[in-house]
Amino acid sequence: MNNSTNTQNIQNFLSSERDQIINHSLYSNIKSLSDLHIFMEHHVYAVWDFMSLLKSLQRNLTSIEHPWIPVANNETCFLINEIVVGEESDVDQNGVRMSHFELYLKSMEESGANIQGISKFIQALKDNSSVEEAFDIAETPIGAREFVRFTMKEIDSNQMHRISAVFTFGREDLIPDMFMTMVNQLYSEYPEKVATYKYYLERHIEVDGGHHSHLALSMTEKLCHTDEMWNEALEASKCCLIARRKLWDSVLSDIQASKQLN
Fold this sequence. Notes:
Order of helices and strands: HHHHEEHHHHHHHH
Oligomer: single chain
Radius of gyration: 18 Å
Strand content: under 5%
Number of helices: 12
């Protein structure tokens, strides 16, 4: 079976899980700026661990040590480096260089969302705390913890075909029209608070849903050498989508709880 057939089989097999995320009731429950804040304060951890997935691939598929030695596969080296350039050093709407994670933080600050949690989390990691210790220091929401734990488990497996599959098939940030409509509505009401977030989403769709998606597919196809590896790639991708759905369940629960309190 050729790579394109394997790729199509995975996409077909994952369609029901993807549909559950696209049609999740979370989106229709984000109706106000405060609802969006709750979403962002959870989702920012997924934006961070996406960067961790990215860098684990770069670390293993390129030569970053001194003294330098040639890599085993120049094609996968090129593919991951091309993605890293866009994810780690993109531009904001003013042309300022920053990673997509930093752009997300900027959008949170602009909107009035609380960035203390994620800021404490990052500082704890800088201070050499473990991810679990950083969770406690930051008081990270339970749903976000569980999602990041899944990602860290895949990274720690050090199996590049699984990590690449999770990155390619499980971490496409599926942004349904309903969500974009809601963001556009909030932008019309609060242009000074939602402009950067709207730009982030549009940039994400343009870059990650287009050029980077094709690069990631090529990378996964080159890393899956056997039927067994393709099966493992499928399993990891499905588990990642299930983890994303559970994260959305958790965010929805917190939004609904907040509405009841208010």
